[in-house]
């Protein structure tokens, strides 16, 4: 029989006589939600929207982008984060499409993101401050039409 990484941590702690629990982001944690809505009014390509702050040490578990039929011929949104500094003092450059690259919002609907480890699922937020700012960036394939409409972004995470 094989053990998950987290279950093996419990086995190891018990073998050493410790009955200490795992971190809340690994077991018995509370799911929290960050929610943002924004109405774009003639937004140009590359418009960056600061959505909300994800707290330090939060573990990302899911995300959804819900949108109107945004105007513009082929409209896409990227979801990422603003520049920040890790707890070790290392500068992290902004990554505007870390979590969603080119989500098609040219028709009304819902797009899930944080769908894989490579796209941020399970990541623990490492910052030197209170957290990092999650962003949305407009991408208009023909770059001739301004983007108009409303978006809503919801991210679930575990923190305590």
Summed up, what is this model?
With 160 residues, the chain is mainly beta.
Keywords:
7% helix, elongated, mainly beta, four-stranded antiparallel beta sheet, 160 residues, Jelly Rolls
Report on this structure:
The mean pLDDT is 86. With 160 residues, the protein is mainly β. The chain has a single domain (30-158), classed as Jelly Rolls, CATH 2.60.120. The strands form 3 sheets. It has a 4-stranded antiparallel sheet with strand order 1-10-3-8, with no helix packed on it. A 4-stranded antiparallel sheet has the order 2-9-4-7, with no helix packed on it. Strands 5-6 form a two-stranded antiparallel ribbon. It is built from 1 helix and 10 strands, in the order H-E-E-E-E-E-E-E-E-E-E.
Q: Would you spell out the secondary-structure blueprint of this structure?
A:
Elements (H helix, E strand, L loop, with lengths): L4 H11 L15 E13 L4 E8 L3 E9 L7 E7 L2 E2 L5 E2 L2 E10 L4 E5 L17 E10 L6 E12 L2
Antiparallel strand pairs: 1-10, 2-9, 3-8, 3-10, 4-7, 4-9, 5-6
Q: Distance between termini? A: 30 Å
**How many strands appear in the DSSP assignment?**
10
How much beta, percentage-wise? over 45%
What is the CATH topology classification name? Answer: Jelly Rolls
- Helix coverage percent of residues? under 10%
Radius of gyration equals: 19 Å
- Known CATH architecture: Sandwich
Content-based structural category: mainly beta
Low-confidence stretches: none
What strand order characterises the main sheet? 1-10-3-8
What summary fits the major beta sheet? 4 strands, antiparallel
Overall spatial form: elongated
Average pLDDT metric: 86
Order of helices and strands: HEEEEEEEEEE
| Overall tally of structural domains | 1
């Amino acid at each position: 029989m094989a053990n998950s990484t987290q279950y093996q941590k419990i086995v190891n702690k018990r073998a050493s006589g410790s009955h200490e629990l795992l971190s809340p982001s690994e077991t018995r944690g509370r799911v929290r939600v960050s929610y943002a809505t924004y109405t774009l009014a003639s937004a140009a390509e590359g418009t960056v929207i600061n959505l909300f702050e994800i707290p330090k040490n939060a573990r990302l578990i899911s995300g959804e982008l819900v949108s109107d039929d945004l105007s513009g011929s082929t409209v896409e949104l990227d979801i990422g984060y603003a520049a920040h500094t890790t707890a070790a003092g290392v500068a992290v450059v902004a990554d505007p499409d870390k979590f969603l690259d080119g989500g098609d919002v040219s028709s009304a609907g819902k797009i899930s993101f944080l769908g894989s480890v490579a796209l941020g699922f399970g990541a623990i937020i490492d910052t030197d401050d209170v957290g990092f700012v999650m962003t949305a960036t407009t991408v208009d394939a023909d770059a001739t039409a301004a983007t108009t409409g409303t978006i809503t972004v919801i991210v679930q995470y575990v923190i305590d």
